[in-house]
């Protein structure tokens, strides 16, 4: 760093072009040193040294057999001895972290407050139906993608995927009777762009420019991942002097809103709406979200979309055995109320709340997949929390994500009898996403369900799963999701499930009924096929996944969160020694976002470039084929 200090001193004293050149050359030299050091693996074992895939076993259809894996209730007697780590939360981030550590022999205990493992990948069964609550479709699961390779290793190759139709989404704009439909396609033959050109033949220039931006952001996103691992002080230096933007254009795109880029691309309002439509997959409207974040999502689906055969519960069901293989456990009904610190302020264990008496569990490493707000505002001792800067000051622009409403419907009839599609509908009442959402969010709780919901996601999970007809003959399911304001329901957050009162039910059901009414405008023949109907609100989300304000996507995916100044601060290591973070708040929301956060967290924990290890395994797999 002496060389760097001299260069900075020279620049300050002379303010000449020569000084700037010296500083830039010095920086590039040091950055290469840092990046090369990251590429050199430590003495930690390589979790991906072996390909652990084996031929997939027949799908397990016995609920009791699966529940023995997914619903292992917590007791003190089940806690393994001599733990290496404790993971708080069994979502995809927590399970990924635990599984990777287990691959090198670490004994990991995963604690889940809900009655089954999986986080947003869990399912529930009611009235003879099964519902996936958070997994609707996943991208990048074609053979030999790095995402597929990683999933295969986490599950020993047992998790199987069904490719969905080429037209995986349909965007519908306008109110009933005046609706315009735009198919969204994916595939290896540039299907996404071709479908856009067919829908908007006069917008070739704008569409091609958008595609070029997608490719640029994807190519430059590697530097964003590196900032999670480069020492924070080095990141601060790169950002403060603007050097990061000399190396990569990624954060130039990250610092722009999706709406700003759309307004620059075209004057066609429907095209803007279609290019922006899946902001609902992360919950932040175009005028507030980062364009780079949106590009990551669009890129995720370009080559195809997939659904887990057997439903979302298959994910945790096949990861848990890889954790148990090294002596670890995944236990449910184990609400962690506190992260324990030793006399030196180091994380050393957790406290689990049980009616029979709290249980303290100790381990040399604690990994929280419970989210940034839960970890720093609820789980750390109050004396530590009060001494820290507020989260919003430590991570500029960070805030809670938006709440969500979900409607789960059981239908009598097969997908063939009911004519159900495997693709999704994204229905918008207007092509101005921001305007319509602002109007909706500003409604009172009593008025929230009186007028049309401006954003409605409609999907039929049973139509995507080839195993469904055998497991649930003569039945089908529909799921709908929209955004919702936490304040509409916050006064009932401490209420008991199904016993929150008439006023709560009235507001919740009014929104759910309006969503179903709008759904029936597309599928009117389903009206008399309903056998089960359930509406979940933001306080339902809080109860099941412990999201503090009913958010399903973790931290808000606003522009500020993805700026270089904040992005690198949301990293695996914390100021508390031996305490690490994982999960969607570290990277992005979604199945793959949480999974890669687990990989990034293990990189930091093990001091090893696991991305390079996974990439090397991928090359070996391709070569073997």
TrEMBL record:
Keywords: FAD, Flavoprotein, Membrane, NAD, NADP, Signal, Transmembrane, Transmembrane helix
Protein's UniProt keywords contain Zinc-finger: no
InterPro entries: Amino_oxidase, FAD/NAD-bd_sf, Retinol_saturase
Cross-referenced Pfam families: Amino_oxidase
GO molecular function (one): oxidoreductase activity
Regions crossing the membrane: 7-31
Domain Amine oxidase residues, every copy: 92-606
Top-level taxon of the source organism: Eukaryota
Record's signal peptide: none
Family to which this protein belongs: Belongs to the carotenoid/retinoid oxidoreductase family. CrtISO subfamily.
Annotated protein name in UniProt: Amine oxidase domain-containing protein
Origin species: Patiria miniata (Bat star)
């Amino acid at each position: 760093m002496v060389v760097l200090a001299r260069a900075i001193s020279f620049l300050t004293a002379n303010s000449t072009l020569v000084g700037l050149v010296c500083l830039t050359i010095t920086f590039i030299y040091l950055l290469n040193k840092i990046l090369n050091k990251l590429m050199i693996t430590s003495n930690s074992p390589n979790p991906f040294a072996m390909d652990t895939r084996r031929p997939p076993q027949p799908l397990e259809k016995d609920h009791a057999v699966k529940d023995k894996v997914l619903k292992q209730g917590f007791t003190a007697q089940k806690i393994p001895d001599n733990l290496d780590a404790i993971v708080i939360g069994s979502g995809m981030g927590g399970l990924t972290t635990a599984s990777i550590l287990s691959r090198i022999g670490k004994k990991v205990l995963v604690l889940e407050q809900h009655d089954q493992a999986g986080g947003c990948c869990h399912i529930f069964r009611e009235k003879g139906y099964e519902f996936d609550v958070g997994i609707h479709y996943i991208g990048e699961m074609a053979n030999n993608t790095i995402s597929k390779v990683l999933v295969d290793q986490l599950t020993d190759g047992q998790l199987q995927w069904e490719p969905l139709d080429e037209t995986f989404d349909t965007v519908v704009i306008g109110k009933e009777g005046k609706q315009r439909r735009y198919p969204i396609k994916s595939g290896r033959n540039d299907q996404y762009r071709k479908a856009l050109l067919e829908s908007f033949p006069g917008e070739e220039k704008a569409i091609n420019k958008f595609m070029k931006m997608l490719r640029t952001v994807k190519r430059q996103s590697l530097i964003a991942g590196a900032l999670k691992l480069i020492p924070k002080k080095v990141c601060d230096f790169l950002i403060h002097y603007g050097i990061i933007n000399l190396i990569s254009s990624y954060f130039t795109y990250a610092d722009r809103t999706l709406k700003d880029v759309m307004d620059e691309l075209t004057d066609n309002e429907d095209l803007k709406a279609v290019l922006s439509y899946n902001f609902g997959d992360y919950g932040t409207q175009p005028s507030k979200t980062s364009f780079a974040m949106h590009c990551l999502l669009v890129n995720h689906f370009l080559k195809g979309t997939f659904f887990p055969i057997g439903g979302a519960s298959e994910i945790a069901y096949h990861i848990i055995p890889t954790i148990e293989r090294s002596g670890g456990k995944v236990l449910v009904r184990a609400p962690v109320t506190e992260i324990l610190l030793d006399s030196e302020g180091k994380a050393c264990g957790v406290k689990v709340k049980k009616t029979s008496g709290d249980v303290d569990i100790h381990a040399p490493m604690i990994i929280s997949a419970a989210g940034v707000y839960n970890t720093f505002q609820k789980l750390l001792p109050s004396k530590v929390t009060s001494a820290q800067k507020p989260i919003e000051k430590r991570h500029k622009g960070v805030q809670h994500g938006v709440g969500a409403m979900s409607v789960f419907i059981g239908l009598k009839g097969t997908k063939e009898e009911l004519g159900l599609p495997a693709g999704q509908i994204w229905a918008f009442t207007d092509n101005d996403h921001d305007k319509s959402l602002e109007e909706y969010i500003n409604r009172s709780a009593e008025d929230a369900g009186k007028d049309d919901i401006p954003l409605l996601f409609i999907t039929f999970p049973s139509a995507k799963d080839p195993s469904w007809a055998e497991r649930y003959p003569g039945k089908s399911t529909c799921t709908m999701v929209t955004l919702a304001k936490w304040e509409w329901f916050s006064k009932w957050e401490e209420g008991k499930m199904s016993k929150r009162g008439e006023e709560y039910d009235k507001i919740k059901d009014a929104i759910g009924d309006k969503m179903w009414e709008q759904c029936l405008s597309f599928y009117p023949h389903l009206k008399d096929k309903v056998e089960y109907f359930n509406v979940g609100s933001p306080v339902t989300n809080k109860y099941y996944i412990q999201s503090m304000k009913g958010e399903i996507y973790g931290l808000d995916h606003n522009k500020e969160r993805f700026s270089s100044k904040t992005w690198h601060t949301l990293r695996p290591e914390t100021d508390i020694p031996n305490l690490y973070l994982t999960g969607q708040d570290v990277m992005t929301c979604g199945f793959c976002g949480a999974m890669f956060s687990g990989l990034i967290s293990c990189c930091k924990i093990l001091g090893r470039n696991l991305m390079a290890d996974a990439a090397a395994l991928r090359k070996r797999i391709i070569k073997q084929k």
